[in-house]
Amino acid sequence: IGWTIENCEVRWNHGAGVDLATNDRALNNAIHDNGQLGVHGVGNNVLVQDNEIASNNYAGFAPDWEAGGAKFAVSNGVVFRGNNVHDNKGPGLWTDIDCINIRYEGNLILNNANDGIKHEIGYDAKIIDNTVKGNGAAFSVWLWGSQILVQNSQDVEVSGNIVEVSARGGNGISLIEQNRGSGAHGPYLTRNNSVHDNAITCLGTTGASGAVADDKSTDIYKNNTFDNDTYYAPDPAGHHWAWNDDGTWTGLRSVGQELHGRVLPLPTSVK
Fold first, then answer.
1. In the prediction, which pLDDT does 268 show?
2. Residue 35 CB neighbours (<10 A)
3. Residue 38 and residue 88 in contact, taking contact as beta carbons nearer than 8 Å
4. Which contacts (CB < 8 Å, 24+ apart) does range 182-187 have?
5. What is the pLDDT of residue 162?
6. How confident is the model at residue 230 (pLDDT cuts 50, 70, 90)?
7. What is the SS3 assignment for the chain?
8. What does the mean pLDDT of the chain come to?
9. pLDDT at 209 over 70
10. Quick one: which of 16, 89, 158, 184 has the fewest CB in 10 Å?
11. How far, in Å, CA of 76 to CA of 46, rounded?
12. How high is the pLDDT of residue 122?
C-alpha cells in the first residue's frame, strides 16, 4: 500500500501487468502486451496517470469477465488522467462493482475491442475531457460497444468529451439498465446521470447514443439527462439515438432531451 510505479515498461505477464491497491500510483509507464489486463486494482485513493496501456489480453481472457486495458473493482477515489489506452482486447478503462468517486479525465482511448470507458454497477463518477474513438467496432446490438458506457450506475457526469464512432460499428455515449440488484452504496440503478457538452461523431450509418433498459417502463427515461451535446452524422435524419424505442433526433427532443443540443452533417474533412 502506498507504492509508486513510475517510468517502467511492463509487458509479457500472463495475468495483469500492474496490480494497484490503496494509495498506490502508476505514473508514466508503458504497460503493454500482458496476457489479461494492463492494470488491475482494488483500493482507495489510487492514481493512474500518463501511462500508455496498449495491446493487452494476448492470452484471450473473456473481456466480459475481466480483460483489456484497465479494470478496478470495489474502489473509492480512483483517478485515470492523461493515459493513452489503445488496441486492448477488451474495454479500455473499466470500473466495476461498488466503485465510487471515480474520475476519468483527459485520457485518449482508441480502438479497444469493447467499450472505451465503462462505469458499471457503481456510483458517483466524472467522465470529462476525454477523447474516445473507434472502440467496440464489432458491436451493433443494443448500445453495447459504446465509446462511453454508464451501466447500472448513478450520479455520473459525462461532459466535454470528444467521441467518434467507427463506420465499422460501435456506439456513442450510452446509458444501460438491467436488473443487477443492489450494492454497498444503494441499488444498481441508472439514475441521476448528466450527459452534456460533448461532441459525438458517427462516421457511418450505424451507432447511437442515449438510454436503453430491459424494462421499458423504468425511470431510466425520466431521471437521466442529455443536453447541449453536438452530434455529427452523414445523415442527420438517421437513427443515431436511442430513447425508449425512438431512434430519431425529433423523437429524442420530444421527450425533453437535448433541448439545447444540435445535430449537424459530417464535416467535409472526415467524410
1. 72
2. 17
3. yes
4. 183/97, 183/98, 183/121, 183/122, 184/74, 184/98, 185/98, 185/100, 185/123, 186/123, 186/154
5. 98
6. very high
7. CCCEEECCEEECCCCEEEEECCCCEEECCEEECCCCEEEEECCEEEEEECCEEECCCCCCCCHHHHCEEEEEECCEEEEEECCEEECCCCCCEEEECCCECEEEECCEEECCCCCCEEEECCCCEEEECCEEECCCCCCCCCCCCEEEEEECCECEEEECCEEEEECCECEEEEEEECCCCEECCEECCCECEEEECCEEEECCCCCCEEEEECCCCCHHHCCEEEECCEEEECCCCCCCEEECCECCHHHHHHCCCCCCCEEEECCHHHC
8. 95
9. yes
10. 184
11. 8
12. 98
Contact, 148 vs 124, CB < 8 A?
no
Asked if residues 90 and 123 have their Cβ atoms less than 8 Å apart, the reply is no
Question: What pLDDT shows up at residue 216?
Answer: 73
Q: Is the pTM for the entire model greater than 0.85?
A: yes
